[in-house]
Hints:
This protein is an all-alpha fold. It has 3 helices and no strands. The protein has a domain at 26-67. 73% of the residues lie in helices and 0% in strands. It starts with 5 loop residues before the first helix and ends in a 5-residue tail after the last helix.
Amino acid sequence: MTTIDPRQTQAREIVEDAISKLRAMGMTADGAASLLCIQGAVRVEDMAKRKSNVKTVAQFAEDPIDA
């Protein structure tokens, strides 16, 4: 059985809240998620971490959509 770190749950709730607020401003779900992705990326100072994040995001681009 896998134990989920409560901080992971809290972090997801924060992201979902941010997306909800952006959608309330008139953004689409994809637009809101994209904005958070880009805004998060520009705040990563460590170049190695940036590159690692890019690889992870690129993998999502290749995977089938989770529906």
